[in-house]
Amino acid sequence: MVAHHLRRSSSLVRFLSHAGRRPLTSITKLRIASAPPPHTLASHPLISSSPANFCVIDRRNSGQVYLRKYLYSSSVSSAVYRPNLKPLPLSRGFIITPARSAAMSSKLIPSNPADVMVIRHVTPNIVTFSVPFARFGTAKIGGRGTLVKLSSGNLAVFSPVALTEAAKAKVAELGGNLAYIIALDYEHHIFISEWATQYPGVKIIGPEGLPEKRAGQHDPKIGKEEFAVVFKKENKHDIKVDNEFDADFDYEYVDGHANKEIVFLYKPEKVLIEADLLFNMPATEQYSKAPEAERKEGFLGKLFEGLQNPHGDNKWMKRFNWHVAAKDRASFNESVKAIGKWDFVKLIPCHGDVVEENAKEMFSQVFEWHLRA
After folding, report:
1. Which of 57, 111, 180, 274 is deepest in the core (most CB within 10 A)?
2. Within 10 Å of residue 1's Cβ, how many Cβ atoms?
3. Same domain, yes or no, for 74 and 184?
4. What pLDDT sits at residue 111?
5. Residues near 114 by beta carbon (within 8 Å), at least 6 away in sequence
6. Is the pLDDT of residue 65 over 80?
């Protein structure tokens, strides 16, 4: 039953992506339009410990809220009546508001990034910064930032992670001239401000909606920096970064993906760089320096690891991409076909291990249905 709901829930995309999404544990307040005192999920007797273990289902015609264990969601959704759920009677016309917390991003990142970060050269001009990350503390999908040295000598960082002293040293080793910060999608953006403050004058690049999202968040780590380039669905292939950047990179804005992915090809070394378009689980490298206790997977973690493992029989990954990730399937298919024409050997995802060889073959297998559509 759990797997059935997870496969059908678009919130699975939000579960698998990390930066910038409010965790479900922050959704605690129910404001009732006709009742002065606010009600809280956390205080209700049906909640044993954390509201992250429940999905809120709004059946507005009866004014009741139903809670189901172990179905993750960060939004209220309409649902048919389910007789096996216990109702929590409330007045009609309620809305759910996220509880704002200055520590929101701290729940999404390691408390000791310097101790657990793995820094290594994937190629002579590309360095990765890999760290542990468990979505909602359950699915150990890992996190990764990627630093690239352009032919001009300037640097670009893609979806950066924490800027540790070791990370600063690596930037300096590659010349120290950081010119671009790229948010690879709508979710991977928490550390933009940290890097932009350290390296002023950079061009910030990201997908549509992200500047507005950041402007509306109340988090000390997330600033109000202006974006130099914003990718939009309309005329997306007419949007360019600049001559220096474009000399080394091809890019495709996958607006049909639920997380508004931007995928990049570093042409000099034939490396694809992406965030949530393709996972390569398990996240072995990203957890290689984590304490042993933090590496253990629970039931949901193992479930998602299986869903996002592109090796062997990857039919569940294909189904996930086809039915869940592709919110606009026609546009998604067009983008996948465009990427499929590129020449790449390696693939660097934000989640899971780097694909060191035969990356295009893996890509073609995972997205077979889209390439044939």
Report:
1. 274
2. 9
3. no
4. 83
5. 162, 164, 165, 166
6. no
Whether the Cβ atoms of residue 276 and residue 13 lie closer than 8 Å to each other: yes
Give the pLDDT confidence of 300-353 residue by residue, as tens digits: 767 777 778 898 888 999 999 999 999 999 999 999 999 999 999 999 999 999
Polymer length in residues for the chain: 373
Q: State the pLDDT at residue 85.
A: 41
Q: Give the per-residue pLDDT at 191.
A: 96
**Residue 171 CA to chain centroid, in angstroms?**
24
* Span 160-174, average pLDDT: 98
Q: What letter would DSSP give residue 74?
A: S
What total of structural domains would you count in the chain? 2
- My answer on whether omega of the bond before 98 falls inside 30° of 0, hence cis, is no
Residues β-bridged to residue 178: 155
Q: Is the pLDDT confidence value at 74 over 60? A: no
Looking at the fold, whether 157 and 88 belong to one and the same domain comes out as no
- Which of 103, 127, 143 is the last residue before a domain boundary? 103
Task: Verify that 88 and 212 share a domain, yes or no.
Answer: no
CB 125 within 8 A of CB 269: yes
- The pLDDT score that the predictor gives to residue 59 is 35
Same-domain check for residues 342 and 197:
yes
Write the single-letter amino acid at 269.
Answer: E
Q: What are phi and psi of 262, to 5 degrees?
A: -120, 120
Listed residues 62, 85, 103: the one ending a domain:
103
Q: Any bridge partners for residue 229, and if so which? A: 205
Range list of H helices, the chain: 2-8, 11-16, 113-116, 165-173, 192-198, 210-215, 243-246, 292-295, 299-307, 315-320, 329-340, 359-366, 368-372
pTM strictly above 0.70 = yes
Q: What is the pLDDT of residues 14-57, one digit of tens each?
A: 333 333 333 333 333 333 233 323 333 333 333 233 333 333 33
- Per the domain annotation, does 3 fall within a domain? no
Peptide bond into 282 cis (omega under 30): yes
Local structure of 17: helix, strand or coil: coil
Looking at the fold, whether 230 and 217 belong to one and the same domain comes out as yes
